[in-house]
Amino acid sequence: MSLKVAIQMDPIDHVDINADSSFRIAEEAQARGHILFYYTPDQLSYREGRVMARGWPLTVRREQGNHFTLGELQDVDLAEMDVVWLRQDPPFDMGYITTTHILDMVHPDTLVVNDPFWVRNYPEKLLVLEFPDLTPPTMIARDFSTLKSFKDTHGDIILKPLYGNGGAGVFRLDDNDRNLASLHELFAGINREPLIAQKFLPDVSNGDKRIILVDGEPVGAINRVPAAGETRSNMHVGGRPEKIGLTERDLEICAAIGPLLRDKGQVFVGIDVIGDYLTEINVTSPTGIQELERFDGTNVAEKIWQAIEARRA
């Protein structure tokens, strides 16, 4: 089966070919005989009833700095594609949301991965709210007094933007911290979005586990250990990936959320688990498949494409 595959992602010339999941997905697609087309989100458009993308035929290779070749710039009707990958990084702002609305117009005749309707309705820090038994105490609010009440109750908390990513804007406020008011003023001055607060989990010092699920099934995990003096474990901010296995609690969490993910067309998902608690369900642009492949020898990209090919068949 040879598929015509469009990849909507951030500029490919900036990716780290040894870490970027989108690159690995493209590489595996090419190895399986699929035909690649690449464009950036700003080149997606709706034109008189057609969903169009301006971009390039793409060839990839594992040579950093010489890792891709582009064909001639062209306009493509995405209804003529078999698969479109929604792979640009957050922030999950109105620009991001608009791309999901536009791609909705070709899905499912053109298979959009992950399903854009449910990406829009299940952003990473909100989908977990459907599983309160699996998560630490959590609050979403904009009102200062409501957030202060949560901190007064739990003492040591994590405060972060509701639609942020990569560890940006994440603060730990312990029992002695007096910065909640100042941080609230700072965030309120930037946008009108609520904040999310969660009870701090000391187990994060042992790592924040990223578990990869393909079509609702767990395929492995990596552990992300915070750098010295850091609370955040994201690899974007210096977190160190380590080999780790899945515990019975991890499998219990995956069994609880997996059917929903599969039913809603979330083919490639990365969840975050600290200790025994689920903290995020990442559906927009999850990462970690190259690290898992190096640690465990698990070709996650192959499993992803097997799931997509089965859906197309």
Walk me through what this model shows:
The protein is an alpha+beta fold. The chain is built from nine helices and 17 strands. The strands form three sheets. Strands 1, 2, 3, 4, 5, 6, 7 and 8 form an eight-stranded mixed β-sheet that branches. A five-stranded antiparallel β-sheet has the order 15-14-13-16-17. It is globular. The termini are close together. The model has no long low-confidence stretch (mean pLDDT 94).
Radius of gyration: 20 Å
Low-confidence runs of at least 5 consecutive residues: none
H/E order of the elements? Answer: EHEEEEEEHEHHEHEEHEEEEHEEHH
Sheet having the most strands: 8 strands, mixed
Tell me the structural class: alpha+beta
**First-to-last CA distance:** 9 Å
What oligomeric arrangement do these chains adopt?
single chain
Overall average pLDDT? 94
Count, helices: 9
What is the number of strand segments? 17
What is the beta-strand fraction? 25-35%
Question: What percentage of residues falls in helices of 4 or more residues?
Answer: 25-40%
Shape category: globular
